[in-house]
Design a protein that fits this description.
Shape: rod-shaped
Structural class: alpha+beta
Strand content: 5-15%
Number of strands: 5
Distance between the termini: 152 Å
Largest sheet: 5 strands, mixed
Strand order of the largest sheet: 1-2-5-3-4
Number of helices: 6
Length: 267
């Protein structure tokens, strides 16, 4: 009786919730479907995570590369700035040098113009003497040279200018005023020794040539040429232009050479 009652109580729920095979299969299929969807989503998340991680690493590498590039550019900028400073200083120096050279070039051109004017003036004012071969005027690379025969300036054995010599040299002096060149007056003689009558006053040709050069310098000074431009030199008979074996050659060697040359730079 009791056993029957217990059996009856147990049987009621089964009857209340009937469990059939189709229902159990459907439930199992639902659990399987739910598990399948979760795995797919997880896989997608993992893939997206891996892609993000890869993208992050790529961006990080680009940032590092950009940082290195930035440092390189900064170094290049610093180097270029230093180079710019150096170049600016060089440009300034070259500008100054260019201005100085331009100024010197202008001065040289002006000197050349005045020298040419002096040459033309000498040739025009000494036509007669040039034609007679008593004077020679020659242009040099850095100046002029005027050779004047001593025979038209001095009496034999004398260092005093005669009247004709003074007149000729005054014409020369008027042209030399056109330039600022140094004027070197060089006395030359032939190789004949000094005669007995003059040996006490001029022991050798050095003294005679020097005295004649000094006479020309004094005349130039008296004519208004600056004494600072004048220089008297004796070379006696050591620089002949012709043979001393003939009277004609000795006459050519007895000369006053007037050299115009640039003023030496002060040391």
């Amino acid at each position: 009786m009791i056993d029957h009652a217990i059996s009856s109580r147990r049987a009621r729920p089964a009857a209340r919730f009937p469990v059939t095979l189709p229902a159990l299969a459907l439930f199992a299929a639902g659990l399987a479907l739910a598990g399948c969807v979760s795995r797919t989503q997880y896989t997608q998340v993992e893939q997206e995570r891996d892609l993000c991680k890869t993208r992050y690493e790529q961006l990080q590498n680009k940032i590092e590369s950009a940082k290195v590039a930035g440092q390189t550019l900064a170094q290049e900028k610093t180097a270029l700035t230093s180079e710019k400073t150096v170049l600016e200083a060089k440009v300034a120096t070259l500008q100054t040098q260019g201005e100085e050279l331009g100024s010197k070039l202008h001065e040289r051109e002006e000197e050349a113009r005045k020298l040419q004017e002096t040459y033309d003036g000498l040739v025009a004012n000494l036509k007669k003497e040039l034609k007679a071969g008593q004077v020679e005027v020659k242009q040099l690379r850095d100046g002029l040279r005027v050779n004047v025969s001593q025979d038209i300036l001095f009496d034999s054995g004398s260092a005093a200018l005669d009247k004709n010599g003074i007149e000729v040299l005054q014409r020369v002096a008027s042209q030399l005023k056109k330039t600022a060149h140094q004027i070197v007056v060089i006395g030359h003689t032939d190789d004949r020794p000094i005669g007995p009558a003059l040996i006490k006053q001029y022991p050798t040709n050095w003294e005679l040539a020097g005295a004649r050069a000094a006479s020309v310098v004094r005349l130039f000074d008296d004519s208004g040429l600056s004494a600072k431009r004048l220089l008297a030199v004796s070379v006696a008979d050591v620089q002949p232009v012709a043979s001393n074996k003939t009277a004609e050659g000795r006459a050519k060697n007895r000369r006053i050479e007037i050299r115009l040359r640039p003023v030496p730079a002060e040391g």
